[in-house]
Every structure is written in structure tokens, then in C-alpha cells.
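Predict structure. Input: ATP-dependent DNA helicase, 110 residues.
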Amino acid sequence: MANRKAFETVDRTFRDILGVDLPFGGKIMILGGDFRQVLPIVIGGTKLQIINASIVQSPLWSNVRLLHLSENMRAQNDDVFSDFLLRIGNSDEPTIEGDMIRIPDCMTIP
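Output follows.
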């Protein structure tokens, strides 16, 4: 996930270039991603610093309209893999050694 500084920099740049004092210079922005995957990188950061670096912590986030996709197009022909991803994303997959999960042998290359 992008750091909120990048998100806010794009906003300021669009406002400056377009001369319009509206979020992103009044332009519609389309973002894509999965918040269940990766948090922003903050080298040496604490948990709080990493969370604060997320775009959802930006004042701009109140202007975002979330749309949730309902079908995983990459895994549409593989129900086993698709279900596995959902269990991981929903924190329903059993863990081993703390926060580690076991990847089934059928999903690895020997």
C-alpha cells in the first residue's frame, strides 16, 4: 500500500498544477488495492507510525468512496486458491508459530 505522504503529494501537485483548491484539483481519482495485504513501509517504524502512514489516516480519506469488488478475477478458475486467499484475508486461516500460515503443497513449486 502506498504511504499517505505519496497520496497527499499527488493531491498537492494536482491542486498546484490545476489551480483548483479541491481534493486532487477537482479530478476523480481511481485507486485500487487490498488493505488486507500490505501496510506501508516505514523503515524502523513503530506499529503506530506504520498505521499513521496508511492513506486511511489522511485527511483526504473522508473524500474517498469505497467500492468493493465481489469476484477475484485472477483466481476465478481456482476455487481452492480463491477460498484460501479469502481465509487469509479474513484471518480465518489457522496459524503456526505465531502469525505464520502453512501454504498447502498443491500451491507451491517443489
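The chain has a mean pLDDT of 89.
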